[in-house]
Design brief:
The protein is α/β, with parallel strands linked by helices. It is built from 33 helices and 12 strands.
């Protein structure tokens, strides 16, 4: 029988397939290599921080560990800090007159012990504002590892699918390697060899050959990725980088304790809880995966994680896991302002189907959801239209911003709970610190776990005691940003005191003396032309500086007229403002525009609207136009930018005018905060509200009027009723 190939052809083809399979197999070790490099480079980065600490420790600190050490010879020879000692050797120290060999070894040992203790306490941070050599090397290695994993996964898939087939075909074609042997080969063997050669050629020239070649080349190209590519990828998906770092070097970010106060027995059960992430399109942080396991295990819970920790992603991951175990129907109830954002986040982070149940098509959407399943996303207002069959069950109801239903008598509470009655699992979520309002916490717990609520109601006064915490831990779980997002870049807050011009001063005093007390809170912004506003001019300087540093700016104000004036003042620098009248969908569109906009772009928002429920990590500069009467509102606004995914230091500027109501409001709130922080028992401290009430605001107004009267030699009075009316504007 004729041969379709030459002996040389067979040898070449076999060699090609052998090399390719070996390359694919070699790929499996690549991720481990990068993991080793990540461990090394992260240790180096941590050690850099250790050395920074040691450079601040004088060498005479060594004598506290070992009395009798001679320090003067060290000082005389230029050894000033423990870092200098650590970088030296026993030989060098022993060469110094007055330092014996034994003393040299002792000194070096003490310095290393000091370094080791410091190392254990060091937590590293990665930020695009601090691209040191060590940080860049670490980011490049994690970038390479993240690129390698899917490539290696594909390599393993091709090995699994084709290796056995190729081995079998190679055995069949081997008789064709030798011309002499071919002459004495049976017809059947020759037919098999010809067939095998044809199939091996088809494989090499087809998908297998082209795709595996591309994979091998892609794997080789990883090592040539630039530092700028790595940092750009880090900026786009920093949580994935920190997740890898947590796994490779636990504790280096300061997040090694995933339990966060849970009782030991419960913690172990949660650790063993199964979680099925197939279909989840994002990487969970360690604390987030733990939160998902807690939700799955406890079934009816209140997740109180601080703002910016990814409660939404944890809810989505929970739904994904439940879907992978056979569940089909889920509901998310949220404020109308974040409805669109919820739908987008589900699509972005999972393969779940989403049905928006809201607006004029709500009933049709609801029928579609009942028929097809998926995640129905609706609003508190729309819950009243959910008329479900008494026997209809969905697996999980997620209630976002659960403090909206803290009043059991409110209709939206009743409607929401009626919807919740159709699901065995409930997930309430709120970033509001309910520890400071125990009654509200217990109300929400009662909706979830009545028995636990009854047991803690009797000891509510002991809300800071371990036994209270242990009881509520079965249903209430809260992590704080400082506990789990230790890698966040620095939050730098500053007060920008803007001296009033004569024009501004006159406008401010007129507003007070004529009874326009809320107008006084618009100090500097209430001038007719903002070119004459000290705050506006300082804002412009901040924006220009931000642009030069490649940053974008968020501007918040309580007052709509201030927002309109700033919008007109900034012109093309500014996108359309966000206020209460802007629909949720349009808000998200504006944020999308902001994300894609160049450096120096400004997004202005009414602080009550844009300060909650939105993720705006594209901004790293936050400007607050006037002090708020509720500090929590300011904190929420800052958290729009300062949250998980932020890779730049966040700069917060509070625009204030001296010798005005700004100064007095700021001083009182700082005093209240100081008192609050001094209490070990925050629930007791919380009885003294951090907010400014009508009475306090009235006293500030009266004090300002008295000051102006004294300054101008005039006299006027203000009634409590007038102040109260202004307070409620």
């Amino acid at each position: 029988m004729a041969k379709f190939f030459s002996s040389q052809d067979v040898k070449l083809l076999l060699e090609q397939h052998s090399r390719r399979l070996n390359s694919l197999k070699a790929a499996s070790s690549v991720p481990e290599q990068y993991l080793s490099q990540i461990k090394t480079t992260s240790d180096n980065l941590a050690m850099q921080e250790v050395m920074n600490v040691l450079r601040g420790v004088p060498v005479d600190e060594l004598t506290k560990q070992k009395k009798g050490l001679k320090i003067k010879p060290l000082l005389d020879n230029g050894y000033r800090t423990v870092a200098d000692i650590y970088s030296s050797t026993p030989y060098r120290l022993a060469s110094i007159r007055g330092i014996s060999q034994d003393a040299a070894y002792t000194i070096i040992r003490i310095a290393k012990d000091f370094a080791n203790k410091t190392f254990k306490e060091i937590h590293i941070k990665l930020s695009t504002d601090n691209k040191t050599k060590q940080a860049t090397e670490l980011v490049k290695n994690i970038h390479a590892y993240n690129l390698a994993r899917p490539i290696v996964s594909s390599c393993n898939r091709y090995i699994s699918e084709y290796e056995e087939q190729i081995d079998d075909l190679c055995k069949l074609v081997k008789p064709g390697k030798n011309a002499l042997r071919w002459l004495f080969t049976s017809k059947a063997t020759k037919e098999r060899a010809n067939f095998a050669y044809q199939k091996l050629t088809e494989l090499w020239q087809g998908e297998y050959g082209s795709q595996t070649k591309a994979l091998v080349n892609d794997l080789k190209s990883i090592s040539t990725a630039s530092a700028s590519d790595a940092w750009a990828d880090f900026a786009a998906q920093s949580p994935a980088y920190f997740s890898v770092l947590e796994d490779v070097n636990p504790g280096l970010l300061g997040t090694s304790d995933a339990v966060y106060g849970l009782p030991e027995e419960l913690a172990q059960k949660i650790q063993d809880q199964c979680f099925f992430p197939d279909g989840l399109l994002c990487t969970l942080r360690r604390y987030q995966e733990w939160g998902v396991k807690y939700i799955l295990h406890q079934e009816r819970v209140l997740l109180g994680d601080e703002m910016g920790l990814g409660k939404t992603v944890q809810a989505i991951a929970t739904i994904v896991s439940l879907k992978n175990t056979g569940a089909t129907h889920f509901v998310v109830v949220c404020p109308a302002s974040v409805l669109t954002n919820w739908c987008r986040e589900i699509v972005k982070h999972s393969k779940l189907s989403v049905i928006k149940v809201h607006g004029s098509l709500r009933l049709a959407a609801m029928k579609d959801w009942i028929k097809r399943g998926g995640v129905a996303v609706t609003t508190y207002e729309t819950t009243k239209y959910f008329k479900l069959d008494v026997n209809f069950q969905h697996t999980l109801t997620v209630v976002d911003e659960a403090h909206y239903i803290k009043n059991p008598e409110a209709q939206r509470t009743k409607n929401t709970l009626a919807l919740c009655s159709h699901s065995p699992r409930l997930l309430f979520m709120t970033g509001t610190a309910l520890e400071n309002n125990v009654d509200e916490m217990i109300t929400l717990i009662r909706f979830l776990q009545p028995r636990i609520a009854s047991s803690v109601s009797r000891i509510a006064f002991m809300s800071s005691a371990p036994q209270f915490r242990e009881k509520v831990a079965l249903v209430y779980y809260r992590r704080k940003r400082d506990d789990v997002l230790t890698e966040l870049p620095e939050l730098i807050e500053s007060k920008e005191w803007c001296a009033l011009s004569k024009e501004e001063e006159v406008a401010y005093e007129d507003s007070l003396m004529t009874g326009h007390y809320m107008q006084a809170r618009r100090v500097s912004w209430n001038v007719e032309d903002l070119h004459h506003s000290s705050k506006a001019n300082r804002l412009l300087e901040i924006i220009e500086e931000a642009e030069s540093e490649g940053r974008k700016v968020l501007v918040f104000s309580y007052f709509l007229d201030t927002i309109r004036k700033i919008y007109d003042f900034l012109g093309d620098r500014c996108l359309n403002p966000i206020s209460g009248s802007v629909t949720p969908q349009r808000r998200q569109e504006i944020i999308d525009e902001f994300n894609d906009a160049p450096a120096g772009t400004v997004l202005i928002s009414q602080i009550q609207s844009g300060g909650t429920g939105l993720n705006i990590q594209a901004a790293s500069v936050v400007v607050i136009c006037e002090p708020q009467l509720k500090p929590s509102i300011e904190n929420q606004a800052i958290s729009r930018a300062y949250r998980m995914g932020q890779v730049r230091n966040v700069l917060v500027y509070r625009l204030l005018c001296p010798e005005t109501i700004d100064e007095k409001i700021t001083a009182i709130l700082e005093e209240k905060q100081a008192i609050f922080d001094a209490f070990a028992d925050k629930s007791v401290a919380a009885k003294e509200s951090l907010e400014l009430d009508k009475t306090t605001f009235g006293e500030l107004i009266k004090a300002e009027i008295d000051r102006i009267n004294a300054k101008n030699g005039t006299s006027s009075n203000v009634s409590d009723e007038e102040v109260a009316a202004a307070f409620n504007e």
